[in-house]
Amino acid sequence: MGFDTGNTGFMLVATSLVMLMTPGLAFFYGGLVSKKGVLTIMMQSFVSLGITTVLWFTVGYSLCFSGDVFGIIGNLDHAFLRDITMMDALSPTNNIPLIVFISYQMMFAVITPALITGAFAERVRFKAYLVFQILWLLLVYFPFTHMVWGGGLFAQWGVLDFAGGIVVHATAGMAALASVFFVGKRAERVSEPHSIPLIALGTALLWFGWYGFNAGSELRVDGVTALAFLNTDVAASFAAVVWLAIDWKITGKPKFVGMLTGAVAGLATITPAAGYVGTGTAALIGCIASVVCYLSIGLKNKFGWDDALDVWGVHGMGGITGVILLGIFASTKVNPGGADGLLHGGTHFFLIEVAAVVIAAAYAFVISYAMLSLINKFTPVRIDAKEQLTGVDAAMHGETAYLM
Fold this sequence. Notes:
The N and C termini lie far apart (about 60 Å). About 70% of the residues lie in helices and about 0% in strands. Helix 10 (about 280-305) runs antiparallel to helix 11 (about 310-330) and helix 11 (about 310-330) runs antiparallel to helix 12. Strands 1-2 form a two-stranded antiparallel sheet. The protein has helices at about 5-30, 40-65, 100-115, 125-150, 155, 165-185, 195-215, 225-250, 255-270, 280-305, 310-330, 345-380, 385-390, 390-395; strands spanning about 90, 95. Strand 1 (about 90) and strand 2 (about 95) form a beta hairpin. The model has no long low-confidence stretch (mean pLDDT about 95). The chain is mostly helical.
């Protein structure tokens, strides 16, 4: 029997869209940092396309989706994609090539550690970052992917996470906060982004790619796919408008960067719930996303945490909020394959969603801080103040984005 060509074609497009999100993130972050650190932050995103792909091929896919060890991690039966052929189907009920699913999940693994880099922008040495990325994937991302999507512990509990509120955003956001505490403040704080057009370009690529991120997570084309697609746009749009309104009210001016940040907050927050809630709920989630993430950034500023690009406030708190809201608003009337949230009598489902995201957040924070401490014993993690002031692009890579 041949593969379902429609579903296969859609998933190949979705995979390409998720891949595009990593360069999009590079432009988004690149615009937000100083002009002396553009290449460093962009390279940290782009290098993940290479490093993560190598790790995914060798052990990552197998550790996430092959076997089960104590519900925490998979095994190495499919290391180096051993015994996987181009004729293998994903499952008896989803007749797309398994290698398409492997590629799709690989793109999720690529962007997740890259998200963290915005928190420690212009402060971490490239060698230390490479080691951190590899260890973080092995010790944080792969276990939680297995636990949520690979049949592990959380899946056995009945936890749902449509496209990565727990697996991607909560873990990366809390790892970002841990890195801020470990690395400390920048020698020179950038008061304004160096290129708002780059931020806009990056947001556009992220928003566009997010349709593959969320709608593609249904792994086929059906009504839920279309719902997740629409919910993605609705949540992002409502979040962008609400953030714009809040910023305008507080600062007295409508800020473009604020609107773009709001859109990303909405995208991150709807991610875990995209295929499990109605469109009206997605609009509400977008509004809540802007309020929560805006307040989180205000809290960060009040305490003086130097999360340079607000990874914790936007991705971390957005992902955590989205999972909690999924636990409240999910409805089997919307998606019979989902669950009923707290508002529909699903108290148990709400509690396991909260428990799962709290465990993921706490684990990611502690392990990330411990990893940076360990790495620092072998190679310096922090770029010294003189090199930061001179310019990390020139100091770390011998290149600059602009003629000085």
